[in-house]
Specification:
With 235 residues, the protein is mainly alpha-helical. It has 4 helices and 5 strands. A hairpin with a 5-residue loop joins strand 2 and strand 3. Helix 3 (88-201) packs antiparallel against helix 4.
Length: 235
């Protein structure tokens, strides 16, 4: 229920336009006591927007009070429209004539105010545009900063991939060394087998023969140790 200067002022048309823009359904109706009754169905948040928007105050309309209540929607309205009672059309023609006279007076007396208002509005618009451009520049700077950080992260990722490749190369080297050690170990076993055969088949001095083979084994073991040291150093 809306009270104030809300009848014969085009208030219902404004309400209908607002209701349609908010995709609400319902109607606006003049009451005999001078108030306007508005019935609207829709989302609760959108209805709150309607309540705030219909509190209109201008040259012709002056809303003094808005009383609202809630109930379950019925779904009976197919759109948002204005209820017009019998005889209201003639009344609105008279009202239109009065409003036209009022508008003529406002026009004759208000060009100076309108010009000042428009100048002020243009100045505010220019200032607002400057602020928008400043915000846009700041957003572009932030975007450039984010791109720089993204490039830095990509560089770090490339560096990590290079280190991973280096680790894989070292792993391949270690595998090659282990395979060589395995081959050397097999050769040692073969040598020991030959030593056993030589001991059985020859009549050389056992002590001198063992000494000779012992020295040879020490040399081979030294080579193996050197190989293992290389493995540890490369790992």
């Amino acid at each position: 229920m809306v009270s104030g200067k809300v009848q014969q002022a085009g208030y219902r048309d404004r309400v209908v336009g607002i209701g349609k823009n908010l995709a609400l359904s319902g109607y606006a109706e003049n009451l005999s006591d001078g108030r306007v009754k508005i019935v609207a169905e829709g989302n609760e948040e959108v209805l709150e927007q309607l309540t705030a928007t219909i509190n209109i105050k201008n040259t012709l309309i002056n809303v003094e009070n808005v009383e609202s209540s809630d109930w379950e929607a019925t779904g009976e309205f197919s759109g948002f429209y204005k209820l017009v009672k019998e005889g209201e059309t003639d009344e609105r023609l008279d009202t239109a004539a009065d409003l036209l006279k009022e508008l003529i007076g406002v026009t004759n007396n208000g060009f100076s105010t309108l010009n000042n208002t428009m100048t002020s509005g243009f100045n505010k618009l220019a200032l607002g545009q400057d602020k928008i451009l400043e915000k846009q520049d700041r957003m572009l700077e932030k975007q450039d900063s984010m791109l720089d950080k993204q490039d830095s992260m990509l560089e770090k990722q490339d560096s990590m991939l290079e280190k991973q490749d280096s680790m894989l190369e070292k792993q391949d080297t270690s595998i090659d060394i282990l395979e060589k050690v395995h081959g050397d170990t097999s050769e040692i076993k073969s040598t020991l087998s030959r030593i056993e055969v030589d001991v059985k088949d020859t009549r050389y001095s056992l002590s001198s023969y063992i000494e000779e083979k012992h020295q040879k084994l020490e040399g081979e073991i030294a080579e193996i140790k050197a190989t293992l040291v290389k493995i540890q150093a490369s790992g």
